[in-house]
Amino acid sequence: MASKHILDPHCELIMEEYRENIPLFNQKTEEISSILRKSVSDAGLIVAALESRVKGEDSLAGKLELKGSKYKTLADITDIIGIRVITFYVDDVDKVASAVERLFKVDWENSVDKRKIHEIDSFGYMSLHYICSMEGFPYRFEVQMRTVLQHAWSNMNHDTGYKSGVSIPTRYIRNLSRLAGMLELIDDEFTKMRQDLTDYRRKVKALVASGNLSEVLLDEESYRSFLELGPFDNLNRRIASVNQAEIQAVSLMPYLPVFVSLGFKTLGDIEKLLQEYSGAAFEIATFQMGLTDLDILSSSVGPQNLCIAYVLKNGGGKAGLVKIFDVLGGEHSGNELMAQLILDQAKMLPFMNQ
Known about the structure:
Blueprint lengths: L8 H12 L1 H21 L4 E8 L2 H11 L13 E7 L2 H14 L1 E2 L5 E2 L14 E7 L2 E11 H12 L10 H41 L9 H8 L5 H8 L5 E3 L7 H6 L5 H23 L6 E3 L2 H13 L3 H13 L3 H14 L8
Parallel strand pairs: 2-6, 7-8
Antiparallel strand pairs: 1-2, 3-5, 4-5, 5-6
Helix pairs in contact: 1-3, 2-4, 5-6, 6-7, 10-11, 11-12, 12-13
């Protein structure tokens, strides 16, 4: 099929060189993408997408038709291969850029950080563009780095037809500018939120490590840090020693909503629970073990019986026990039967008569 583009002999030579090297371009695109993907993964970065493409023949011909005299050879065209890395956060763009700088030789003269030349009255959303090269490959390639929101804006901006050459009324340009500003603010706020959460995690870990548990609010992050200390290990080992049972580790995160349902507000409340109710939890567990020949116990045996002991000692009765099981495994008719059985057994235990 004849090309719709009119090219001079010089540009036709460039096009011929392009066609001859398409297999090489495809191979190198895969190689560059793989190298960059591994580096990003090794650095612990999670990106939204890593895209790649070889410039299409029609696109290249159009480019040469417009400004072919600018290029002496195909090697002068820097975006035959294009890689795009889309991150979730603004600061991750710079982390990806650092990886690119380590992996490839960056042509700084032709690379552009469009974020730094973003005009205050413009509404084009910007990204970081590096022109790179690698040893043994005579052609340069482009790596674009931007956030998810920057990428979304770029696509939306393209769909508006703003760059189509058609004049757009000022009111539409103003609205687009407002939207771009909002997206930029959201991008920055997401990054700030992540940093704030990171700072909070560090603070929680420091407080937990220092033992100031009464100052640490009970939430998913603080509870997870608390579990790293193995707070229920001693009670579990004590219970297991009765039958010389093996302890099988399971996640204790499901007990967070149980503690919350019991009204606990801080890690100090759980620490107090351990101090005041471990004896009762041991009595309940050993009584139940005496009725079986279990030699493998779940690591949840400690926290579960602590919660049961707390409910029984504080007058929660059958309804309180049912609530524990409902929170742990969902509402089920068997929860009432289990609660009644535990209630009947507990009446025979010393801690209930103290």
